[in-house]
Task: structure prediction
Amino acid sequence: MKNGKVFRFVVLMLFVVFAGFYIVSYSNYYDYDAKKRMTLTKEQIKQFEEDVENGVNIDAKKYLSINEKKYNNNISKLTYKLSSTIGKTIEASLNTVFNKVAGAINN
Result:
């Protein structure tokens, strides 16, 4: 009976992981981020057009730079470390569960 509980737990965990990936894939966050990086803002286009009219030497890097504020601070660093630790812990526990399932199947 113990093998049945382990199997149900593994199937449930796989379903939760799949559901998470499925939701993230349909949220279009990656597409939004890529589009934001590709698209020039109105201010950058206006500055480019003014520089062309005035005969200024054009450098593409000047117009393609994205001025995003960086939010690196001690809290974000601590949160990243905590998230990384949780991820490693979950990975180790999943490896243990899968090893036990493999052992149960082989027996």
